[in-house]
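hey team, just a heads up i'm posting the complex here instead of the shared drive bc the drive is being weird again. everything in one block, sequence lines first with there labels, then the predicted structure for the whole assembly after. its three chains so it's a bit long, scroll down
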Amino acid sequence: MDVLPEITEILVKIRNRKPLIHHLTNFVTANDSANITLAIGASPVMANDPLEVEEMVLKASALVINIGTLNHQALDAIIAAGLTAKEKGIPVILDPVGAGGTSARTRAARRLIETVMPDVIRGNLAEIQELAGQSGGIKGVDSTACETGSERVAISVAAALGCVVALTGRTDTITDGKRVCRIDNGSPLLTSITGAGCMATSLVGSCCAVSGSRFLGAAAGIAVMGVAGELAGKSLAAGEGVGTFRMRLFDAVYAVTPHLITEYGKITCEEC
Amino acid sequence: MDVLPEITEILVKIRNRKPLIHHLTNFVTANDSANITLAIGASPVMANDPLEVEEMVLKASALVINIGTLNHQALDAIIAAGLTAKEKGIPVILDPVGAGGTSARTRAARRLIETVMPDVIRGNLAEIQELAGQSGGIKGVDSTACETGSERVAISVAAALGCVVALTGRTDTITDGKRVCRIDNGSPLLTSITGAGCMATSLVGSCCAVSGSRFLGAAAGIAVMGVAGELAGKSLAAGEGVGTFRMRLFDAVYAVTPHLITEYGKITCEEC
Amino acid sequence: MDVLPEITEILVKIRNRKPLIHHLTNFVTANDSANITLAIGASPVMANDPLEVEEMVLKASALVINIGTLNHQALDAIIAAGLTAKEKGIPVILDPVGAGGTSARTRAARRLIETVMPDVIRGNLAEIQELAGQSGGIKGVDSTACETGSERVAISVAAALGCVVALTGRTDTITDGKRVCRIDNGSPLLTSITGAGCMATSLVGSCCAVSGSRFLGAAAGIAVMGVAGELAGKSLAAGEGVGTFRMRLFDAVYAVTPHLITEYGKITCEEC
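-- predicted structure starts here --
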């Protein structure tokens, strides 16, 4: 199953259409999410006032919900926005940041999933395990879980929830429960900057905004992050570290072309 | 009408006086606004607790109000801060981010303008058109409006509201309804990073803080952004993109001198 | 009194243990605090919902409280988190950003100190003077106080409050009221970017998380910031300014080794 043609087509479409990606996200990495959305060629907006979220959602081509610094008082407005998006067929991408980290956070993630039924969930292994009802190894918002069997976890969560799961880690797994896509790009430095996961989720939102397939949209977003991360990591000279890497990551997403995805992407897909 | 001497004098004054610029701004680009304010030589503060905004405003030399992620519950405190500033003669600069994007946002911008009567409004064409009561082309918080006739819109809004309008776009227009200043610097990359508008507004605030003229202060801030953006854009080597551009933009504002403004500034002013 | 062996040991321990550092911090520099915490090798989390702060604190190895954009409505939850940390012996580091800037801010800082009794207070001279009941020179959140006698102020505050004071300035002073450590590294550019103080506080938190001594932990964090800042500043080529400096600062903290601290650290300690 060769998904490269679809993935590269998605990239071209984003640059042609500049889709609006509405974010209900955290205050730590909002700037990074906005800049990576612009870097891939889409248009970010972060309005979160309950008075305007629903109206803004209706103008957007995708809705990204990220619970990194979720306040429980904001949850009702987020759910209303999510339901509005679902009703109108606008793809909803959930980043359950730190699910399993505290019980309030796990509850919020579960409530969002049950009520909104997001099209795509993008998380690390610990977060996805938590949603599967397994005890995930999580420290704060970072995963410490062992990756063996992570693909099985992703597939079972996708099948159980009827959505696409994009589980990022050393190897990224994107699955809708029937098909699975493995991406072997990236850089170890992605775990040494904040917001790499949030940015991947924004890229998934940007790709789903222009694709009829949530599965291919999720795969495209993760592929762009993986290839860009890998190229940014390889570009570093002696003495350059996380600061330079972070800057080059934006350069690399901005510079990603169908050709680069084709040349560097280590992407395999198959039926489950 | 040669405004270069006044603009360069403003730059020198900022570096001598390091004026305090109070920001009531959004959580997406607050860090960028703080860093650009420091880069030009002023001192930013972002306190937004209703208990302290008015006290902080009284210590400031300018107040920047930016509604990028405005919550309606914060609006009363923002208006109180704005009125305090106006009473004391401290210049108030409004950035009506995304006005026209949602009705709540448009109402908030209008209410701020009616009650506070800001000295300067800095926005893109879609936002300024909205304030003129015309239908502006806006997607999220980015302008999609056609720029033809934008100067006429800026002049009519400035005249109607009795304030300075700084309309940024391919050519920037700064006008108080009687005089108009056109600035032809900048870089297309400024639309590919988040916060370029917000940063321009912070620079306008920094310049108005040390100038007796809001018109010249606004022109100076936009000129610094334009020249710095242009030099940052021209500095990019092959493979460098939005990440590097963003970093160099801070370098360039920090490095801007009267000499550079004089050498690179494409600034023309005339009576309307 | 040679503290270099302990400081370098702390650095090694952070990289081995990757301690979780919980932050209750401001929205302007949260991203910088998260990235600097990752750069030194620790793991940041920024959860601030009252429903989860205490549960998250119990998983953390240090708690950083930063009042940069404190809202008074959040104060009770912050105090509850601080008391939970103290009960469990988790070090609490307070950054009283802008204390003295407004009366609400000063009251909040004092209330936090009286109720939580932080282990370490990291501030500039104006902020520490304010806590000493002296009139500090402060503009917004930046110190304008004269540094003569700053060491005496730090020692008297540390002795009076029974905590460690880390007063950063041209020379940094770390003291527990009985011992004093002076660090003469850094760069003037640290005052030209936002968040340098906040980042120093995050590094102090990261170091205190793995050290039995709050005094040595504070000294280690400030030493890492000082040496990294100095190396970042020295690395700048012609035309490079605050933007490049900021990026290199993250590179430099990431690259700091016991060897670099030993080679470049200008650290002297003695009994008071």
